[in-house]
Every structure is written in C-alpha cells, then in structure tokens.
Amino acid sequence: MAKYEQLAQELKTRIAQGVWQAGDKLPSLRQTVADSGLSLMTVLNAYQLLESQGVITAQAKSGYLVAPQPETFRYPDRQRQIYLSDKVDINEFVFSVLQASKQAGIVPFGSGFPDPSLFPQQALARSLVKVTRHMSPSFAADNLPPGNAGLRKAISQRYAKLGMSISPDEIIITSGAMEALNLSLATLTQAGDWVVIESPTFYGAMQAIERLKLKAIAVATDPQLGIDLEALAEVLKTYPVKACWLMSQHQNPLGCSLSDTKKQALYQLLNEHKVSLIEDDVYQELYVDASVPRPVKAFDTEGRVLHCGSFSKSLIAGYRVGWVAAGRYAPQLQRLQLMSTLSTSAPMQLAIADFIQSAQYERHLKQLRKKLADRKLAMYQLLRAHLPESVGVNFAQGGYFLWLALPAHMDATQIYSQAIARGISVAPGNLFSNQVEFRHFMRLNASYECSPEIVSAVVVLAELIRNYSR
C-alpha cells in the first residue's frame, strides 16, 4: 500500500477500536503531520480517502469528524423477502399525512423536500426574467413534448460528464419527476400487470400502482446494501413481471445506495428476463463521495432503463421540471404525454436551461452537498443524544433522510398524530409499505439546520417516544 493508504488504514482501525467515535474531531492535518512524520500531502490524501469511504466527514471550520457508522437494523420477519399485493390501497393515507404536514408553523421533519433556503431562488428568478425577455412568439410550440431543445441538450451534456451517451432525442421534459415516473409506468404496463417495487418504497410508487390498477411485488431492501437481488431473481423466475420501479441512489425512505457492482448485477438480471427498469434517481446530485456515482442507466446497452430525474431536490422544487431518459420507449412515452399534460411550463424550462449551463449551478451543487452532509451528521448526533437507546437510526451517506426503527411494539402512526398536535411532522413507516411490517419505523428529514426550534422539536419527539403507550 502507498503511505497515505497505510495511514488511512491505521486511522480506520483506531476509529473501529473506539479511540475516536461518531462526531469526534480527528487531529488536525498539521498535528497528524507532526505525529506521523509524513508529508502534508500524504496526510491530506489519507483523510480524503477516508472521507470518500464515508468513514469521516469534513465540516466547515471544524476540520474532520468521525462519521456515524451504520447501525445494525433488525427488520421484522427477515424470512419474508417478498410481499405480494393484488391491490394497493394507500392514496387516502398519503393524502391525509401530506395535508397535515402542510399546516403553517409545522416543523417539517416529514417533508420530502430539502430546506428551501438551500435553493438559489434569486439567481433562478434572474434567469427567468432574462429568458422571458427574449422568448420568441413561437415559444409555446417550441417547448411542446419532448420539451425545450436547449434544456434537453444541457441534460444530455450532464450525462456525458458521467461517461454516458444519452441523446437529447431520448430525453423528455416532464412536470416534475412524478410525471416522468407515472408516464414511464403507464408506458410499460396495463391494468392487472405485476410490478416490482422495494420494501419499503417511496409512497409515490404505490400511489401510481393503485391509480393504474396494477399488482405490486415488494422485494426486501436493506437499509445499507439496497434491494435483495436473490429475492428479486426468484420473483423474476416466478411471476410475469412487466416493470421494476427502483431507486439505486439515496433511496427514499432508507437513504441507501447500491454499489456499482450491484447496479451492474441488477441491470444484467433484469436484462436477462427482458424486464424494463424505471429508475427513480431524483437524489442523484446529492452524493458526498469524491467520485460521482453513476446510475443503473450507465450500464444499459438495450435501452430498457427509463432514467427519471428532477431539479426539485437539487435546484428548486416550485418550478416542477423533471425528465426521463426513456431509451427505446421515448416515442411511445412522448405520445402518452401529449395525450395527458401536453407540456411542461415553457418559461420554467428556459430558466432552468439557462441556469444549469452557467458556472453558478456547479457552485450551488457543491455548496448544497456540503451543507446537507453537515446537517445530516448534526441531526444524527442530535437524535442519538436525545432518543432512547432502543431506537435505531440508520445513517447512509448522501441525501438527507434518516430512517428510525422504534421498538417493535410501537406504532409510528400514533406518534405521528401526537407529534402533529405538538407542531411537528414526521413520515410514519406505513407511508412506505402496503404491509404492517414497517409500522414502527419513521423517516425524518435532516436537511434543516439544527436551530433552537429544531432541537426543541427533537426533544419533544424523544419525549413522545419515551412516553408511548398503547
């Protein structure tokens, strides 16, 4: 091993031994240089290697801190790797939770969106003013499906940065990621078809399955490793699956990401059975690794992966601009969009196209990733300081969600109701599954700064959990 790799291994061993624990500050670069006798560059490379591996995290003005290490989650009845559901019925529950979470003054732990103060709203507003001044009389027609040519080209160029060759012609601009995902599912299926989802999964997938009268097969998904490929292989052998709707990066609600090896294996498995993948990748830009992760779409040689993205989580939520790189299905999906929503807002398309081609976008993303990583770590430490030891907190690098496991006798929906009454929203586990297995889990949004209000909300939540009674 190189000297920096040896140093990184030594530091990792000490962390494993408990010399430094989650949240502890490591010795400064200068101190480690003095202690080890190595050069500053060697020490810096060792720290950066540990950061890329998720062992430590850099925090502004604080140096390097030990990152939380994954907790061991004991899921209910791990023997059940597959959950069949002839009928999905979740829309009413989702609607009631989302409506309650919209109340004024609510602490938004249950929100699916990042803290809006992290978005460059003024800069985007300037782009919007700029493009509206120069819109041609035919701008509405120019932005009909598949969408604005400039925006599709800009998205294609961002794929190219990942080493992916995606033609602008296979990219369709949509009204947010949900339209991209719903159109993809409608393109691939008919009423009564089987669709594979994760367990637990994003509630939007279950809503779409319910609306289209499809049948769901939920495959167990590990909080750190992602979907169980052995269980998925068994499903594909047994059932006439028409599509899979999966998240390969920063999965909602768990936060886990698949390794490149697992992404490739997943694609090969689906391709072997000629099953198409709807890849929900709305959190793709919210990584923390030194190397940029690539989606499953990067391994797609047959055009079977419909890669769905959005600017709602990385740039701004209110503009409602997403897309799908639809591969072989692009013409079919484009026709379906023309028959439904017709087109996405033309001014919003133009404004985003203008902004993402500027240097401001990369600067914004770099700052966003850093702030989200810092806030997620701070929230994890806050939760661990106040929650009972019986509550597990799954920490996965990237994104901004934390997945909590309460003691098995608890019902997170009951705690959700009590929390709403105290001005705090959470996302109970029943939002993410059509089964009862996840009723004692909940998802928390960790994108907000740990202000006194947030700290107070965590204290209240911990109190509700401690005082829980059935």
Counting H and I runs of at least 4 residues, what is the number of helices? 16
Q: What general outline do the C-alpha atoms trace?
A: globular
Relative helix content:
40-55%
Please tell me how large the radius of gyration is. 23 Å
Proportion of beta-strand residues:
15-25%
What's the total number of strands? 17
| pLDDT < 50 stretches | none
Mean pLDDT across all amino acids:
88
Question: What characterizes the major β-sheet?
Answer: 9 strands, mixed
Q: Based on helices, strands and strand pairing, what is the structural class?
A: alpha/beta
Describe the structure.
Helices cover 42% and strands 15% of the residues. It contains 16 helices and 17 strands. It has helices at residues 3-17, 29-36, 40-52, 91-101, 121-133, 139-142, 149-161, 176-188, 203-211, 229-238, 260-272, 330-339, 346-356, 359-386, 412-421, 452-466, and strands at residues 56-59, 63-66, 82-85, 107-108, 171-174, 194-199, 215-222, 226-227, 241-246, 276-280, 305-310, 322-325, 392-394, 401-405, 424-425, 427-428, 441-445. Strands 3, 5, 6, 7, 8, 9, 10, 11 and 12 form a nine-stranded mixed beta sheet that branches.
Summarize the structure.
It contains 16 helices and 17 strands. By secondary structure, it is α/β, with parallel strands linked by helices.
Helix-strand layout with pairing:
Layout: H1 3-17, H2 29-36, H3 40-52, E1 56-59, E2 63-66, E3 82-85, H4 91-101, E4 107-108, H5 121-133, H6 139-142, H7 149-161, E5 171-174, H8 176-188, E6 194-199, H9 203-211, E7 215-222, E8 226-227, H10 229-238, E9 241-246, H11 260-272, E10 276-280, E11 305-310, E12 322-325, H12 330-339, H13 346-356, H14 359-386, E13 392-394, E14 401-405, H15 412-421, E15 424-425, E16 427-428, E17 441-445, H16 452-466
Parallel strand pairs: 4-15, 6-7, 6-9, 9-10, 10-11
Antiparallel strand pairs: 1-2, 3-7, 5-12, 7-8, 11-12, 13-14, 14-17, 16-17
